[in-house]
Amino acid sequence: MIELEYKSDFLEISYDSENSWVISKWTANTSYLTVDQYKREIHALVKAFANHQPLTGNLSLAQDFNFIVAPELQDWVMLQFEGYFPAKSATIVAAEFVSQLSIEQTLQSLDGAVCYFDNEPEAREWLLGKEKAS
Question: Which of 45, 74, 118, 126 is most open to solvent, judged by the fewest CB atoms within 10 Å of its CB?
Answer without folding.
Answer: 118
